Here is the input.
Amino acid sequence: MHKYIIKRLLYSALIFFFVMLVIYIILRCLPTSYLENVARQMSQRPGSKTYQEWLAQLEAQYGMDKGYLAGYFGWLGNFITGNHGDSWFYTVPVIEKFHDTVWLSFWMGLIVMFFEIIISIPLGILAATKQYSVTDYTVSIVALAGISLPTFFFASLLKLVFSVKLGWFDLFGLVGRNYERLSPMGQFLDKAHHLVLPIVTLVVLSIGGLMRYTRTNMLEVMSADYIRTARAKGLDEHTVIYKHAFRNTLIPLVTILGGSLPGLFSGALITETLYAIPGIGYTSYNAMVGGDIPFSMFYLAFIAILTLLGNLIADLLYAVVDPRVRLS
Amino acid sequence: MKFNDKDKNDILASKLNEQAEAQTAVDTTAASEEEYSLNDDRRVKVLSPGAMVAKRFFRNRIAVVGLVILAVMFLFSFLGGVISPYAEDQLFYTETIQKKEYAGAVRNNDFRFLASGDAKFDSAIQAQVVLAVTTGQDAVTYRDTTYHVNREGEDFYSVTTDGQATLVGIGYKDVVTSSVEGQKLPFDLVFATLKAYTNDENAFELGGEQYTIAEGGVVEKGGEEVAFVSRYVINPISPDIFLSRDFQEQLVIALESGADKFTFTDENGESEYFIDYKPDVKNWVVRQETATRTYDRYAAPSAKHWLGTDRNGMDMLTRLMYGGRVSLVIGFIVELISLIIGVILGGLAGYFGKWVDFLIMRIVDIFYCIPSTPIIIILGAAMDTMGVDPQIRMLYLMLILGFLGWPGMARLVRGQILGLREQEFMVATEASGLRVSRRIFKHLVPNVIPQLIVSCTMGIGSTILIEATLSFLGLGVKFPFASWGNIINDVNNTFVLQNYWFIWIPAGICILLTVLAFNLVGDGLRDAFDPKMKR
Here is the structure.
C-alpha cells in the first residue's frame, strides 16, 4: 500500500512537471506583443514604474530572457521553494492574495457539496428503484436539464427573480453597503445572505451529474446476482435496496466524492465571476484577464495539483472501500 | 452479434402471438391461407443491427423529443437565416422626437441708431443721445454742435442739427428688417415705418405710395410684404438654420401673446415649437420638436421585429438564427477535431499496445490534467489584447477547444479497442487470415462507433455550453458575429437585466434546449445501442 502510494505520488509529480511545462509553453507562445501590452497597461497605472522597467521585470519574471526550458526550470524552482512572486494585478504577494480568497471558496464549495449529496443521492436511488416510472423520467430530465443549463443564464434568471423582482438579495458582491457598521455576527449573516444565490446556482447545476451517476450505478447494482438472491430468499424490498443495493452503490459514490474533495479549493470560476464573489475563482479570473502572469501560473499549478490529488484520492478510496480491489 | 438471437426470439414470440390471434380470426371466416412451417425463414423478419437500434431509439419517447428539438433548432438556425428578411448585422433606425434648441429671441431694450444718408452720426453722438433720452433733455451738445433729440413716437427719436433743419439720424428700439433676404431698406422707409408703428398707426404714405402695417408688424405695400417691424431680435441657434420671415412673425405673435408654444409649417412639414423664458439672461429660447434618426435600440417585440432589437439596433430574431448557426457549427467542428485526434491516437494506443500505448496514454494523462477553462480564458484575454480579427478568432477558438477535448475521446477509443481486441470474433478474423486494415476497419471500428456517436452527441452539447460561457464572458465569439452566448452577454448591463427580457431570455432558452436535446439524444442513443437495455 505504502509502496503504491509512493509510486503514485511520484507519477503524479511527473505528470505535474509535464502539465506545467505545457502550460508554460502555451503562455510563452503568446506573442511578445502580449507582454509588451501588459507592460504598457501596467506603466499607465497611477504611480507605476516606467514601461521599460515593467518590461524588464516581466521578462525576468516570465523567464522571457531565457530559453523555454531554462525559464521553465526557473519557474519550477521558485514554485517548489515557495517563492511565488508578487501579483501584478493585485500588487500583493501571490500567496497572500491566495490565502485571502481560497477559504471563502472552500466553505462555499463545502456547503454546495453538502446540498448536492443530500439532494441528488436520494433522488438518484429513487429513480433507479422505480425505473421507467414517472418519477424516474422526471428525475432524469431534471438532472439533464441541470447539466444543460448555462451557468450565466441560470444566474441571470435567479438575479431577475430574486434580486430585481423580489428584492431579496443584492445583485453583486459578498458584502452589503452597511457591512462595516455591523456587529461580527451581523457581518457573518450579511456574507451568508450574499452567498445564497451563488450557492443555489452551484447546487442546481451540480446535482444533475451526481444524480445520474447515482442512478446509473444503482441500476447496475440492482441487476446484480446477489440482489436477485436477496429477493429470492424473501427479504423485503426496503432491506434489499438499502442494505444490499445502496451499500454497494456507495463504492463508486464514495470514490467519486472523495476524488472531488480537493476540487473544493479550486473555486467556482464562472459562478464567482457572475456574482462578483471574491473567492479564488473570481480573483483568478480577474488576474488571468488582466494578464497577471505570476498569479495565473500559480493558480494553474494549484488546479493541476488539485486534479492530480483528486485522482489519487479516488483511486486510493476505491481500494479502501471495495475489498475486492487490490492495489498493485 | 450476440444479441441478434435474443431479439429474433422476441420478435418470433410476438409474431407467433399475432399469428395465433390472426388464426382465430381466420378460423371463424375462411381457413384458406397457407401456413409457413415453423422453421421457414419467411416467418421471421430479420432486422439489421442498424434498424434495430433505430427501432429501439424511436421507442424512447424522450429521445425522440430531443431529436425533434434538435431538428427544430437546426431548421431555425440554418434555414431561418435564409428566410429572415434581415441580415445578420443589419442596423435598424427609428425616428425619435427630440426637442432641440432652434432659435433665441430677445426683447430689444437698447437703442439702435441709423444715420440719415451720409450724415455724421457716430457712436459718441449716439451715446450722448441715449443720455439725453434717459435724462429727458431734448438737446445735447457734442463738439460744438448742438443735436436736437425729438421724440417721434414711443422709444423712437429723431436727431437733428442746425436748429432742426438737418436730420442726422434716428434712434429706435423696434427693429425694422427687410422682407427680402440681404436687401437694405431705404432710410426714408425705415423712418416712416417706425413713425407709424410707434404711434400705433396701421398705415402711412411715402413717396406717393400707400403702406400698411398689419398685426405683428408686417409692412406691406399694395398687398406685398416689404418689411417687418418688431421689438424682438431673433437669431438662429446655429448658423446653418435659416429663420424665415414667416417663422419670425409667428414667433413674435406668440411672444407678444405670452404663449409657450406654437406650430409652424415649413418645407419640412409642420413642427411644434416650445418657448421658454430665461429670466437670468432675459431672453427666450425656442426649441423645435424634431424627429431624429437614431439606432432602434432595445425596441420591444413588434410585428416588424418579433423579438425586438438589441443594443446595436439589430433584429434580435435574426441574430438568434445566425447565433445558432455559429454555436452549432462551432460545436460540430470542435467535436470533429477532438474526434479525429482522439480516434487516431486512441486507436493506435489500443491496437498496438505496449510502448505506443504507454506513451500515448501518458500524453493523455497530461492533457487530462491541464485546467482547460483557465487556459481558454487566458488565451481569450490574450487575443483581446492583441486585437485578433473576429473571424480568425472564431477559428482559433475552435482549434483550442478541439485540441483540449481530445484526451477523453482517446481514452474511450483505447478502452473499447483494448476490450474488443481480446474477443473471440477478433481471434476469428485473425484465424481466417484477414488483412490488418480489414480487421481494424471492418471489425474493430464499427464496434467502437456506437460509443463514439454517443460521446460526440453529448460532447457537442457541452462544447456549445463552453462556447456560450466564453462568449458570455466576452472571450469567445466577438461582435459583429452573433452567438447565443454573446447575445446574452448584454445582460451584464443591469438595466437590460431588469427591463429587456427579450434580449437575453430567448437566447438562454435556445442554449438550454439545444444542449438538453443533444444530451437527450445522446442518452437515447446510448440506450438504443446497448443490447442489454431491453424494454
Observations:
- The CA atoms of residues 63 and 71 of chain A lie 4 Å apart.
- Residues 184-222 of chain A form the longest helix (39 residues).
- Chain A has a mean pLDDT of 85.
- The two ends of chain A are 8 Å apart (CA to CA).
